[in-house]
Amino acid sequence: METNSVRQAIINKASDLFYKNGYNNTEISEIIASSGISETTLLKHFNTKEEICIAHLRHRNEEFSKQVMAYVEQAPEGKERIMAIFHYLELFYQMEDFNGCWSIKVFSEVPMSNTLIKNEVQAQKNGLINYIEMLLVENITVDNPEKDYKVLAQKVYLLLEGAVAQSNLHKKEWSITLAKEMCYTLFK
Question: How far is residue 57 from each of residues 70, 102, 128, 163, measured CA to CA in Å?
C-alpha cells in the first residue's frame, strides 16, 4: 500500500473506533489490529494517540462538511437553504452508526489541559458557526447586518448542537424536529 493510503486506512479505522467506543476506550493496539498493520507502521505515520485523534477529528469534519454543503446547495435559495441543515441532520440521525457528534464526544473525554484536541474541536465548531453565518448572509435579510447575522448564526448553531446531543441521548428524533421548528421562528 502507498504511504497515503496506509495513513488514511489508519485514520478510517481509528475514526470508526473512536466514534463507536470513545477516545479513552480505544487502545492503540485495537487501532493496529483493526488496521491490519504493525506498530512500526503505525509509528511511521503517527507518534501519539493524540495525533491519531486530531487526524480523526479532521477526517470526520471534512467528510461531514462536504456532505452538508452538497446537501444544502441543492435546497432552494432563501430560508429553505438554511433549514436544509436540519433536514440533513435528520438524515445524519438515521445513519446506522449514529452516535452523536464525534468532536463533542472526544472533547468531553480529554482533560482541559489537552489544548491541542480542545482547540481543534473549538476551531471546527467555529467553522460551523461561520458556515451558518455565510448561509444567512447569502439567503436572508436582517435589520443590523454587523450584529444580527453573527447572533442569528449562533442561535442556529445552538439549535443544531442541542438537537444532535439530545437525539443521541434519547435515541429519538424529536429534538431535531423541535429544533427545526424553533429555527423557523427565528426567520419570521
Answer: 20, 7, 14, 20
Minimal CA–CA distance to 152: which of 172, 174, 130?
Answer: 130
Say what angle helices 115-139 and 102-109 make with each other, to 10 degrees.
Answer: 150
Contact 57, 121 (CB under 8 A): yes
**Residue type for position 41:** T
Is the overall model pTM greater than 0.85, yes or no? yes
112-147 residue pLDDT tens: 999 999 999 999 999 999 999 999 999 999 888 877
Q: What number of other Cβ atoms are within 10 A of residue 147's Cβ?
A: 10
Q: How would DSSP label each residue in 104-150?
A: HHHHHHS-TT-HHHHHHHHHHHHHHHHHHHHHHHHH---S-HHHHHH
